[in-house]
Design brief:
With 847 residues, the chain is an all-alpha fold. Helices cover 81% and strands 0% of the residues. It contains 24 helices and 2 strands.
């Protein structure tokens, strides 16, 4: 049997390969195709028709039961979820009201102009990404029409519904990313201006309000889309609609997350290195790389995580729906669990809003008039308050909705306990991360101490220590909580479902995301605080004529410039810490979810080949399985290198351009907008080029290894998840330690421009791609590999052995081409005519 998802994705990827395998020139131009796109499309479409003609519609057989057959709290499940839909709309209203309030906050014209320039460059980046997503969707839609309309003979209405939800999935990821970047570019200038009032509290409150707006909008929009499918799409169509929705989400998240991570670190490194080369200050207005850096903060730390979060919430929900429908035989219990799951997801909107307002009142009472406080404290209290309220809500709602399942009156609290393991992880993991990344942590101060006498060398080594220790402690925490969840699942869940361990891991992943809006809020806090500091410097507000008098006259207060800079820098340190805390939560969710899908594959194999054969196949004594375990590690380490190579080459080009065009002559005021936009173009070019090499190599590797052998592939997936988990945690927290060690030098020690500062800047530039490129992209890589691998192994099992081996060799050959390209086509090329026009000597750039 050939999976329709495999057919769609494979065909799409082949077309993309034809369209994107051309080398962009160093001037940004692209040579013409050697193969006509129309011919390529026709060939791929023909291949699709031939391959799909014998396909069975296994993915389309997912049918949602009638939700009106069971009553909850005096109303049907359908009616209860309709009320839940209203709650989701109120969550969207909450997000929009926060957006409006931030937009209307007072801001000086000089700061507004900078934030609008940042927004314009961000918008250009988003439009560029959106055009590619549109092309990709158009091809996928054509394949869906052929498959569902001509091969499965669905009615036109059914096909249109499926296509519409694929659009909705992409627009969901893309739309919430757009919303997030827009509100952040309002919040950055408002935060910068609020710092002038002489109190630190507003510089914390505004970024958090912005983050809550993004978080509430993201979760609410995702739930509205899924509830609409569940409630109003006929049960026979719902399976394909969920599939189309998931494909759209995944495409959007992968493109925006991987490309954004590369973009942001090209810009960041290019800008930061100028501090060492020219001994200029942070965010110097003469540096044309600063605007690109601000754009990158949003592309990598706002767009990417927002789209990734949207996809994570959606895919986790689809996975739980599929498991309930397929693994629970009793239709009544199916309805009970489906309604329960969705009410719990809706509940996170209420608990997050309640926690935000309660925490805000407490924080304002404690810190509203304080001249100094630790910016991390109100964020930490928000996370823990939300966690406790969410846990309480979990048990209350479970008791009210499912007091009995199939006659068992104890399962409600057991299911609640499993979810609680995930919710605790969502609060505990950030605390563990702070031990290694906070400006107050011993590990960060050790990095700083090592830098005093050992310079950049010992700085880097000490950061490696912090990252490695963090992988141990965070890994142990995740393992411990998963073990508790598994243990609870053995206490009677087998009476209502097959493979309860799978469901328990899915519920733990659900619990990880149980504080959804707050998790997104503290993650979105970082790019606003980072940009706010840049907006302050780029506005040159201190040098404007009669600025104090003008602010006093227009806004009613006398600006405190000295404390403002201190507040913004300290707040940026808190933002760095909480950006780091969200990364392990998302990667942990991906790994736990991957574990669930791997168990699903094992269950499929057990039904096909029997338990004893599968047990023998998954034994460590089986060399095929063992080889798979080893192979997964190779992919993770290649991916790490490939993503860093894209950053390295792009940063080289950015530095090359900046050094040639920066104007440091006496009297020079600001970098030109043209030069700033050119740096943004360089970042975009190398981000997209790197992303496609990586994306296609991962895709074809997955297909190749699935066709080798199913036991080999399970070993490969386990290895991907394990290696990816610890590699991501190590890199994210090492990067966070390096970043905040630099921040301590700039704030606590006030030693900018010294050798110590140079050493920490070097460490930070090493940590930049660690924490914001390679580590964060492990999440979509693991999810893509496991999700599409599940479909690929379905194909491989049904193929004749000889055909499967030939397919494996062909796919692997294509994968190796893109692995090769990810380094050799991305290498730094020097010595050309263009190089001669770009002076590398800083003295030449000086004038």
């Amino acid at each position: 049997m050939v999976s329709p998802l495999f057919v769609i994705v494979f065909s799409c990827v082949v077309l993309v390969w034809f369209r994107t395998s051309r080398e962009p020139g160093r001037d940004g131009t692209v040579p013409r195709n050697r193969i006509s796109p129309k011919l390529a499309s026709a060939a791929v479409l023909l291949f699709t028709l031939l391959l799909a003609s014998g396909a069975m519609a296994s993915e389309a057989e997912l049918k949602i039961p009638d939700l009106t057959t069971v009553s909850f709290l005096g109303m049907t499940g359908h009616s209860l979820l309709v009320w839940g839909l209203l709650v989701c709309f109120l969550g969207m209203v909450f997000g929009f009201v926060q957006y409006t309030q931030i937009r209307n906050l007072p801001v000086h014209q000089a700061m507004r102009e900078i934030s609008e320039l940042i927004w314009e460059t961000c918008k250009t980046y988003l439009i560029t990404q959106g055009k590619f997503l549109a092309i990709l969707w158009a091809f996928i839609a054509s394949i869906m029409v052929v498959y569902f309309g001509f091969l499965l003979h669905y009615a036109t209405t059914q096909v249109v519904i499926i296509i519409v939800f694929s659009i909705i999935g992409i627009l969901g990821s893309y739309g919430v990313a757009w919303f997030g970047i827009r509100i952040n570019t309002y919040a950055n200038s408002r935060t910068a201006f609020a710092s002038l009032q002489g109190k630190p509290f507003p510089t914390m409150a505004i970024p958090l309000k912005s983050g809550m707006s993004v978080g509430m909008m993201l979760v609410s929009v995702e739930l509205v889309m899924m509830l609409f499918i569940l409630l109003y799409v006929p049960g026979a169509y719902s399976g394909p609609c969920f599939i189309g929705f998931a494909i759209g989400e995944s495409l959007g998240a992968a493109a925006l997350r991987i490309a954004g991570g590369i973009f942001t670190k090209i810009a960041d490194i290019g800008s930061d290195l100028m501090k060492i080369v020219f001994k200029i200050k942070e965010d110097d207005v003469r540096n044309p790389g600063v605007i690109a850096d601000c754009t990158g903060d949003n592309a990598g730390d706002s767009v990417g995580p927002t789209a990734d979060g949207f996809e994570t919430y959606g895919v986790t929900g689809v996975a739980l729906i599929a498991f309930i429908v397929l693994a629970v035989p009793d239709m009544i219990v199916q309805v009970q669990l489906l309604v329960w799951i969705f009410v719990m997801r809706i509940g996170m909107i209420v608990t997050s809003a309640l926690s935000y307002y309660v925490n805000g009142a407490i924080a304002r009472a404690k810190y509203g008039e304080a001249a100094k406080f630790n910016f991390e404290h109100p964020l930490t209290s928000l996370v823990w308050l939300t966690s406790l309220i969410s846990i309480g809500m979990t048990f209350v709602l479970s008791y009210l909705l499912v007091p009995e399942l199939s006659g068992d009156g104890t399962l409600w609290w057991k299911l609640s306990a499993i979810i609680t393991c995930g919710t605790i992880a969502g609060a505990l993991i950030p605390e563990l991360v702070k031990i290694f990344t906070s400006t107050n942590s011993g590990h960060v101060r050790e990095v700083l101490t090592a830098s005093r006498e050992g310079g950049a060398s010992l700085n880097i080594l000490s950061g490696f220590v912090a990252g490695n220790f963090s992988a141990y402690w965070l890994g142990m925490a995740i393992i411990f909580l998963m073990a508790i969840g598994y243990s609870v699942s053995t206490m009677g869940l087998a009476s209502i479902m097959a493979a309860p361990a799978i469901f328990s891991f899915g519920l733990i992943a659900f619990g990880f995301l149980g504080m959804g809006p707050v998790t997104i809020a503290v993650d979105s806090y970082g790019p606003v605080t980072d940009n706010a500091q840049s907006v302050y410097e780029l506005s040159t507000i201190e040098t404007l004529p009669n600025i104090s008098e003008n602010i006093k006259k227009e806004f009613g207060f006398t600006p405190d410039f000295e404390n403002a800079k201190m507040y913004l820098e300290e707040n940026d340190g808190a933002g760095n810490t909480f950006k780091a805390t969200a990364k392990p939560v998302l990667i942990g969710t991906a790994v736990v979810g991957a574990t669930t899908l791997i168990f699903s594959i094992i269950q499929v194999l057990t039904r096909m080949f029997g338990g004893p054969a599968v047990s023998a196949g998954l034994s460590i004594l089986n060399p095929v399985f063992l080889l798979g375990l080893i192979t997964g590690g190779t992919t993770i380490y290649w991916f790490t290198g490939a993503s860093m190579q894209a950053v390295t080459t792009g940063a080289y080009r950015a530095v090359e351009f900046i050094k040639a065009n920066i104007n440091l002559d006496e009297g020079a005021e600001k970098a030109s907008v043209t030069d700033s936009k050119r740096v943004v173009e360089i970042c975009t070019q190398y981000a997209q080029k790197g992303m496609w090499n990586i994306f296609l190599a991962v895709f074809f590797s997955t297909l190749a290894f699935a066709c080798v052998n199913h036991y080999f592939f399970i070993g490969y997936l386990i290895s991907i998840a394990v290696f990816g988990l610890f590699q991501a945690i190590f890199m994210a927290n090492a990067g966070g330690a390096w970043d905040n060690a630099k921040k301590l030098v700039e704030t606590e020690l006030n030693m900018k421009g010294t050798d110590l500062h140079d050493a920490t800047v070097v460490g930070d530039t090493v940590g930049d791609p660690f924490k914001d490129t390679s580590s964060v992209a492990m999440n979509p890589i693991i999810k893509f590999t496991t999700l599409f691998g599940l479909l690929a192994v379905e194909l491989a099992i049904e193929l004749p052995v000889a055909t499967s081996r030939i397919a494996a060799a062909a796919f692997f050959a294509v994968a190796v081409v893109f692995v090769w390209r990810s380094f050799y086509s991305m290498r730094i090329k020097t010595g050309g005519a263009e190089d001669e026009q770009l002076p590398a000597d800083p003295e030449k750039a000086r004038g």
